[in-house]
Amino acid sequence: MQNSTKNLFFVLLLICFGLAGGESGIAKPGMVQVHGGTLFWAVITFLILLFVLKKVAWMPIINSLEARETEIKEALNSAETARENAEKASKDYDDLVKKARTEAQEIIADSKATGERVKQEIKEAAEKQAKEMIDKAESQITTEREKALNEIKSIVVDFSIQAAAKVIEKNLDSDDNRRIVKNTIEGIRNT
Predict the structure, then answer these.
(1) What is the mean pLDDT of residues 2-31?
(2) What distance in Å separates the CA atoms of residue 143 and residue 126, rounded to the nearest whole number?
(3) Number of folded domains in the chain?
C-alpha cells in the first residue's frame, strides 16, 4: 500500500512540473493555465488530504479488508473441514450400509438354514409318528383279527356241536343231514 501511495505522489509531481514547465507567457486557447504558486498549494493541499484520508479512511478500510480476508480464510478452512467431515461421514454411512446388508444376508441365510432344519425335523417327527401309528394300527388289526377268528372258531364250534347234536337226535338220511348242515352254515353267515 505504501508503494502505491509513493507512485501516485510521483505521478502527480510529474504532471504538475510538466504543466508548470510550459511557455509561461502564451496562453493557448482551450488549455488550462497553471501558475506555480497555485500548483504548489494544490500539491500541498492534496498531500494533506492524502495524509488525512490515510489516517481517517484508508487505515480503517484496510483493517476491515484484512479482517474480512481473515474471516474468508477461516470460512474456507471451516468449509474444507466440514467437507472432509462430510466425506468421512458419507464413507462411514456407506460402510454401515454395507455391514447392515452383509448382516441381513447372513440373517436370511441363517433363517433359511434354520427353516430347512426345522422342516426336516418336523418331517422326520411326522414320519416317525405316522410309522408308530401304522405299527400300532397293524398290531390292533392283528389282535382284532385273531380275536375275531377266535370268536368265529368258537361260534363255528358251537354251531358244529349244535348241528351234530341235531344230527344225532334226528338220525335221518344223508339228505336230511346235508340240509341241516347247510342251514347251520347259513345261520353262521347271517350272524
Answers:
(1) 60
(2) 25
(3) 1
